[in-house]
């Protein structure tokens, strides 16, 4: 067996299961799950219709590169959304089976294993970044995202030697779990660093379409490149998904886009990896990327939930609205694991301890005394969860 498998830590939800193993929640209260970021809003009907109408394509082997219609649909969406010009769907776009699969595979393709290889990522982080780095034969380096830095990674803490050894930098904007948006000026500075030290930036932008101000969508890495005149997006790729944007996590449909030279080699890897998206999923994805009305409606539902929940928790819990995304990242009045256990055992609510989403770096775990709350349930459930939380806080 690959010895690097022994370096992998339990996934956060397995840790949560162990945390609750001796607890019995109240039977008179229905369970409300705020622990997992699985969208619960209805999937668009027209996407399901496109899926059903293309089941006859199951008799064909799909292309790893994806059908031209899908790549052109994605390129068109990127150009409209991020004000890009001339993005080439043929060479600068590649479909993936959800960004989780794509992010992990990408590290295996671009990292040269060795004792000096570093993969940098935010802290807290999506655990795939760590596992991908370890199994690619690199050492993960975690960059703390603290409140005093607006929950953005403290890139000033990275040494010149670490930048020089860096082969891959994972970004996540809007952040999971903090919701912080990386400003375009900082993205531009990171592009310059990537070109100076010759590392690749993989920007996970899966939450980019859940924001609160319709006139100010979060900027993206390719947008930062374009404003610098870097239309070849050298050393830069972005990952997007239909899971959060379109409430289609089960479709397992996303894409990677950017540097054509990097994507050509990644396509070679994927050809051997055997991960072509099913043809009916590709057809349904075209329908989703071509429509924006359902995404605007989706944002409206989240906006309503955030307003109601934060109003209920106001003055009771140290929490504020994020810049984007569908998570709250509140401070807890007691250790985060104790808070999660009390919520489960007394109110039948699950939240995820923040320390499970982070690692100790520079002497601290930035998830300590915080929990992640995913406002993915229906409005009335989210409000009820907040009310139950207030009752618990009164007892604490």
From TrEMBL:
Residues in a coiled coil are none
Q: Which cofactor does it need?
A: pyridoxal 5'-phosphate
Organism equals Candidatus Seongchinamella marina
Question: Which InterPro entries is this protein grouped with?
Answer: Aminotransferase_I/II_large, DapC_beta/gammaproteobac, LL-DAP_aminotransferase, PyrdxlP-dep_Trfase, PyrdxlP-dep_Trfase_major, PyrdxlP-dep_Trfase_small
GO MF term list: succinyldiaminopimelate transaminase activity
Q: What name is this protein filed under?
A: Succinyldiaminopimelate transaminase
Keyword Nucleotide-binding in the entry? The reply is no
Q: Give residue ranges for domain Aminotransferase class I/classII large.
A: 32-375
Give the keywords, sorted: Aminotransferase, Transferase
NCBIfam families (alphabetical): DapC_gpp
Q: Which PANTHER family match?
A: AMINO ACID AMINOTRANSFERASE, L-GLUTAMINE--4-(METHYLSULFANYL)-2-OXOBUTANOATE AMINOTRANSFERASE
The superkingdom of the source organism is Bacteria
| Assigned EC number | 2.6.1.17
Give the top-level enzyme category. transferase
Which lineage?
Answer: Bacteria, Pseudomonadati, Pseudomonadota, Gammaproteobacteria, Cellvibrionales
């Amino acid at each position: 067996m690959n010895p690097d498998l022994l370096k992998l830590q339990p996934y956060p939800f397995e840790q949560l299961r162990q945390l609750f193993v001796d607890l019995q929640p109240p039977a008179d209260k229905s369970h409300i799950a705020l622990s997992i970021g699985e969208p619960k809003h209805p999937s668009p009907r027209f996407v399901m219709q496109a899926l059903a109408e293309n089941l006859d394509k199951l008799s064909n082997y799909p292309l790893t590169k994806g059908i031209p219609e899908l790549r052109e649909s994605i390129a068109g969406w990127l150009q409209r959304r991020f004000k890009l010009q001339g993005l080439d769907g043929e060479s600068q776009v590649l479909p993936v089976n959800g960004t989780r699969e794509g992010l992990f595979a990408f590290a295996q393709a671009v990292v040269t294993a060795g004792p000096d290889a570093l993969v940098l990522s935010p802290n807290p982080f999506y655990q795939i970044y760590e596992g991908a780095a370890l199994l690619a034969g690199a050492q993960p380096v975690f960059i703390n995202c603290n409140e005093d830095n607006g929950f953005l990674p403290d890139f000033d803490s990275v040494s010149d030697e670490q930048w020089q050894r860096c082969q891959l930098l994972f970004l996540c904007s809007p952040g999971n779990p903090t919701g912080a948006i990386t400003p375009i000026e900082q993205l531009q500075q990171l592009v310059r660093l990537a070109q100076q030290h010759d590392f690749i930036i993989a920007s996970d932008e899966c939450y980019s379409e859940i924001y609160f101000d319709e006139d100010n969508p979060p900027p993206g890495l390719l947008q930062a490149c374009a404003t610098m005149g870097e239309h070849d997006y050298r050393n830069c790729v972005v990952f997007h998904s239909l899971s959060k944007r379109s409430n289609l996590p089960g479709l397992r449909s996303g894409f990677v886009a950017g540097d054509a030279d990097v994507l050509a080699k990644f396509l070679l890897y994927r050809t051997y990896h055997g991960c072509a998206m099913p043809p009916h999923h590709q057809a349904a994805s075209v329908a989703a990327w071509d429509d924006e009305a359902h995404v605007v409606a989706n944002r409206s539902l989240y906006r309503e939930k955030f307003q109601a929940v934060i109003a209920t928790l106001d003055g009771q819990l140290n929490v504020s609205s994020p810049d984007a995304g569908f998570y709250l990242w509140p401070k807890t009045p007691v250790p985060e694991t104790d808070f999660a256990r009390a919520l489960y055992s007394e109110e039948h609510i699950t939240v995820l301890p923040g320390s499970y989403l982070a690692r100790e770096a520079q002497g601290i775990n930035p998830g300590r005394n915080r929990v992640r709350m995913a406002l993915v349930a229906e409005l009335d459930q989210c409000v009820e969860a907040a009310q139950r939380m207030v009752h618990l806080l009164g007892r604490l």
